[in-house]
Amino acid sequence: MDLRAGDSWGMLACLCTVLWHLPAVPALNRTGDPGPGPSIQKTYDLTRYLEHQLRSLAGTYLNYLGPPFNEPDFNPPRLGADTLPRATVNLEVWRSLNDKLRLTQNYEAYSHLLCYLRGLNRQAATAELRHSLAHFCTSLQGLLGSIAGVMATLGYPLPQPLPGTEPTWTPGPAHSDFLQKMDDFWLLKELQTWLWRSAKDFNRLKKKMQPPAAAVTLHLEAHGF
Amino acid sequence: MSVLQTWLVQALFIFLITGSIGVLLDPCGRINPESPVVQLGSNFTAVCVLKERCMDYFHVNANFIVWKMGHFTIPKEQYTIINRTAASVTLTDVTSLNIQLTCNILTFGQIEQNVYGITLISGLPPEKPKNLNCIVNEGKKMMCYWDPGRETYLETNFTLKSEWATEKFADCKTKRDTPTSCTVDYSPVYFVNMEVWVEAANALGKVTSDHINFDPVDKVKPNTPRNLSVSNSEELSSILKLTWINSNIKNVIRLKYDIQYRTKGASTWSQIPPEDTASTRSSFTVQDLKPFTEYVFRIRCMKEDGKGFWSDWSEEASGITYEDRPSNTPSFWYKIDPSHSHGHRSVQLMWKTLPPFEANGKILGYEVTLTRWKSRLQNYTVNDTKLTVNLTNDRYIVTLTARNAVGRSDASVLTIPACDFQATHPVMDLKAFPKDNMLWVEWTTPSKSPNKYILEWCVLSDKSPCIPDWQQEDGTVHHTYIRGYLAESKCYLITVTPVYADGPGSPVSIKAYLKQAPPSKGPTVRTKKVGKNEAVLEWDQLPVDVQNGFIRNYTIFYRTNIGNETAVNVDSSHTEYTLSSLTSDTLYMVRMAAYTDEGGKDGPEFTFTTPKFGEIEAIVVCLLSIPIDNSSGVLFCFNKNRDYSLFITCSSFLFRIKKHIWPNVPDPSKSHIAQWSPHTPPRHNFNPKDQMYSDGNFTDVSVVEIEANDKKSFPEDLKSLELFKKEKVSTEGHSSGIGGSSCMSSSRPSISSSDENESAQNTSSTVQYSTVVHSGYRHQVPSVQVFSRSESTQPLLDSEERPEDLQLVDNVDGGDGILPRQQYFKQNCSQQETSPDISHFERSNQVSSVNEEDFVRLKQQISGIPQSCGSGQMKMFQEVSAADAFGPDTEGQGERFKTAGMEAVLDEGMPKSYLPQTVRQGGYMPQ
């Protein structure tokens, strides 16, 4: 239990570190100001890349957790994972989100998820799995940086961590090993859902940000093809 | 070692001193700075500070300081005394990388004692690293590399630094053995830009490269596409489908490909147009390939937008396109067996296998159909490439198709004309010449355009028959090369036959060499007749097997025992030559060389001796003896000075007398004087006895008298000779037959001279480059054909340019018409070209070195082919074989041997030499 308590402190520290570093984001846009388009495209690509990474990582990790977590039709109820940011949202609500809110939600979600993921990393048994998790964490941190970069380009301030809303992975004493694994399972699942959602978010943003001329060009190219 | 020893001794010394003062390893002073590193070429100053104790002990001060660099004492001029205890030294323009600098004191008795020592290291500060770039091998960590700049001579550390906008990554420090690259410790994250730079640092400074900012995905070198496989299509023989498995990176980035292929065994790759493979895929169909051909493929990939690096090439994979029907008809030709029976002829049809690129598959067989006028088809299925059929003398149409698994080729159609068919329309201007180690043949298309051409060729040899090989060329072709193995120095007879819809046209042949060489044997020269002042030499044409090329000319070398060698050039068409102006009763040595375009070869040397008396002298003796014994048909001529007797019939004598008294003087108006020997004696010296080759002991008075009396036109001859000499003195040199040699200078004994009047006729007609009025009477001829070996090569002047000379000559010999000679020259003039052809080929229908009779025979053969039933092209090659046409024929050889035999008999009767006889055919070899 002590270990778990330590873990949550660690996560808190991690989140703080992440958020502390991110305000220095303007540096992301060092190569002049080509507008948000390229960086949104890159962020979109990155979410797809992460999605691809997560697919193989989750497979390995769920196998590491063992049955029933690695069974294809395993679909447990979402218990005890309330602290995880939810990706699922009402379609209408999602459509009505403005760019700033959309980006902020993404940013906050990945900030939290990254901290949880680092906790996962520490528990992983095999070196290979640890290496995969570490790389995924680095990539996810890259995504956070990318989102921060887009926000900076669009002139949105980064959300400041509020003391009351800190993500605290405090499972409580009742957490058994199984429930712990269940949390891990949900973490990965939620990550996956978030990556899907982000892909949609950034695709939407991308289309919105594309200059009309570029759209015409693209159309012509498509026609010519 | 010595340095080490010095140091040890000094160290021990210091130890003892300091020990004696009671302080262990306390030096007498110190140098500042302690471990300096200086830039090469800069100045360096060190200060040595002595300790008071030491100064007191040794009674010295800073003035006693001596600086040393290794064993070398630094001059005092470089020292600066700072105060009583300290002195400095300044080294300018430090160029050594490593300097041992010591501070010493000069103690009592001029003893140097070491105080302190430092090592001065020099080098250069690092240059700014350039050309920094990174590569991400798929699935591996990122590696960056750069150009470190100049050598620093110092330990220089390179550190690769990388960061995101939000985070710094761990430094990457280079290993000592790879200072120009570093592999980072983390897997790069694609789609997040990072900034990378290199820091180079050593003791003299630190410098940073330019920063590069990139997305690692743009530096990717994908893994090679794997499991490349090739499959063909039965429907389309021109395509092959490639499939492969992409690397995992295709899930992250889009790829483009580079596909190369080549036929198996080829060395160069062809490339699929890049625009056809510009997007991610795992298969590709390659089109426009040749049927039934094995192709080898390889593939590589890279990021679609061209950023990053190409993967390595995949392993090669190969596949064979499916078969297609043969795309061409086989080359098709026929031979008619010359041994024909009445009403029938045996015809061998022959064809060539199709090359793979036309066969388009495995040829399973050939189908031949024969159609005679108004009769039904005869079909044959053949696996071989020849078929012998028995035909009547009618006209036949033959077709040939090749068959593979997919289908048949178009039909190759050949007309075998009826027996009485007259072949016409030969190719014109046939030429053959070597080029690029191949024998090329070219011709002018006949007026009637042929369907195709058949080229046949064989080696001309006395040893083996002419076995022709052949090839077919399209009707539009007018030059090609012989496709088949050809040897060098072999004479090839090449025949080109145009093939028309109604049958073959007239064939035309030509001789050619792929590469000529000097003859392997020289001609064997012998005397045909030896007179007092002249000798008729004769020789045989070289057999074709030793010619090794076209015999362009001969050179006759002759000399007396003591005299210089004289060389005479003779046209290659000759087999006889008369040496005139010889000295009587003298031993001559003569040999001959034959030349091709590539060089010459000497034949064996032959010796002969000119007799002391000419025939007329003998006749005089004979005539004088007639009244004594006129009832007898035989005269005994006895010469007391010599050991032999001549037995001559009177009738022959009378004939000869006539000839000598009224000689056959050649017509000077039809002659050229080609060259004059510089040795030709001038007029005032002219005397048959006083020639260059005469020996001083010559004392035959009767000869002088008879000749002087006989020679009525002698002074005129001398006059004309003088004129010629004046005019032609500049033309001395080799008579190569170039230029003015034209028709008049060449002679054709076989045409012009009959066997009976050979004596005078041959003497003149074998004279090659100058037919010469002066040779009309043999003794006065000032050796017009005599040339020294290495003289001017100035071209021969054509005597046609000097009609006045001819006129003069005409006047001289005006009344003396020798018709055969005129006729002969006329014939020669009708020749198109009689000067030897310099090129590598000779037209067979043009007289060159070929015996004219043979040539005529060949012409008859060639033109006679179609007429003679049952003797087609085959017959021609048979008859032409064994050098019958061009070389000395076997018949001729037989004759030659006969002649040689006869001569041998003659030789026995009339000794020509004192030397032992070693050579057959009447030749003598000096032992």
Labels describing this entry:
heterodimer; A: 225 residues; mainly alpha; 69% helix; B: 927 residues; alpha+beta; 6-stranded antiparallel β-sheet; 5-stranded mixed β-sheet; disordered C terminus; Cardiotrophin-like cytokine factor 1 (chain A)
Helix content class of chain B: 10-25%
| Parts with pLDDT < 50 across at least 5 consecutive residues of chain B | 11-24, 628-655, 671-927
Say how many strands of chain A there are.
Answer: 0
Number of helices of chain A: 7
Measured as a percent range, the helix fraction of chain A is: 55-70%
**Which pair of chains forms the biggest interface, and how many residues does each contribute?**
A-B, 28 and 17 residues
* Overall shape of chain B: flat
Number of strands of chain B: 51
Query: What structural class is derived from the secondary structure elements of chain A?
Result: mainly alpha
Measured between the Cα atoms of the first and last residue of chain B, the distance is 81 Å
Query: How many distinct helices of chain B?
Result: 16
Q: Quick one: biggest sheet of chain B?
A: 6 strands, antiparallel
Mean pLDDT of chain A comes to 74
Report the biggest beta sheet of chain A as strand number plus sense, adding barrel if it closes: none
Radius of gyration of chain A: 19 Å
Strand content of chain A is: under 5%
SS class of chain B: alpha+beta
Assign an overall shape of chain A: globular
Radius of gyration of chain B (CA) equals 50 Å
Protein name (chain A): Cardiotrophin-like cytokine factor 1
InterPro entries (chain A): 4_helix_cytokine-like_core, PRF/CT
GO molecular function (chain A): cytokine activity
Subcellular location (chain A): Secreted
